Amino acid sequence: TQKTGMDSYGDSGSGVVNTAWALLALSEAKCNDVDAIRRGVKYLVKRQLPCGDWPQEGIAGVFNRACGITYTAYRNVFPIWALGRCHEVYGEKLDN
Known about the structure:
about 100 residues; about 5% strand; globular; mainly alpha
C-alpha cells in the first residue's frame, strides 16, 4: 500500500530531514534535554542505509505554495550536518 500524508515520512511521521532540522535547531540553542537529542541522533543512525545514504522520503519543500519539491541532497546533507553538530555540542553525553 502507498503511504500518504505524514505517513510517507520515515517512521510514524518522523523523517530524516525533519529530524535533522530539529536537531540542528536544538543543538544551536544548546537544548538541555539531552535525552531528546539522543533519541533524534539514534533515529538518524537507525535510518541510515548500509551504503551511507539516508532514504528518500516524502516531499521536502513546497514551491510557490502549490508545488511539492523533493531535494534529493537534503536526505544526506542535513542528517550528517546534524550528527556532526550534535557530536560537537553534546559529545560524550550522547553515549549514555
